[in-house]
Amino acid sequence: MILQLSAGQGPEECQLAVGKLYHALQKEFPDMRLISQKEGARRNCYHSIQFEAKQNLSFLEGTVLWICRSSFRPKHKRKNWYVDVSIIPDKAEISTEQIFRIEKFHCGKKGGQNVNKVETGVRITHIPTGITVTSTEERSQFQNKQNALKRIQEILNEEDRKNTNLRNHEAWKEHNRIVRGNPVRIYEGDAFRLRYYV
To answer: Are 9 and 40 in contact (CB under 8 A)?
Structure first.
């Protein structure tokens, strides 16, 4: 499961809360693995942090409230800072496992003494995805097989790229969405003590 902590369009105090929340969750769920982070201008401040967790942390999805006076602006009256916790859909896994079904067939093209006598055409199916590619351009079965394998790999690479772009797009949409109210957790003070959770 991939989660994103985000300050959204919030001020630097929200960015500081993102860092504090990530470290608090690390202590609570030590098997978390950092994927990426976008740092803010100040030390320990983050616009967003993405991480992966083995266990189901869907109960964290929503808004986290940090109640604390600003350490950056001591005279500022505001003391409620919000962080968005979003679940980012896992990238659809495109299996690149090299399991293929290779079929040979007669090409049936005009010309050449091997036509309809030797199986030079090649059809390759990538079994995990069902993607099928046929090559009949070359007179050599070996060359047709190489062409088909190259095309199938290009298709797999393109599908993988599309899925990566989709996940990044979803993450960016979530970065700009913070719902204030009904927080799933409330932390307090510089020590970031957990006061309330759903």
So the answer is: no
In angstroms, the Cα distances linking 41 to 15, 25, 111, 154 are 9, 23, 70, 40
pLDDT tens per residue across span 82-118: 999 998 876 544 454 568 888 888 776 554 554 445 6
Residue 6 φ then ψ, to 5°:
-140, 140
pTM to 2 decimal places: 0.59
Higher pLDDT, 141 or 28: 28
Rounded to whole angstroms, what are the CA distances from 44 to 38, 39, 158, 173? 11, 8, 37, 23
- From the number of C-beta atoms within 10 Å of its C-beta (0-12, 13-18, 19+), residue 66 rates as buried
Phi, psi for residue 62 in degrees, rounded to 5: 135, -145
Count Cβ neighbours within 10 Å for each residue of 117-155 and write b for 16 or more, e otherwise: eeebbbbbbbeebebebbbbebbebeebbebbbeebeee
- At 9, is the pLDDT very low, low, confident or very high (cuts 50, 70, 90)? confident
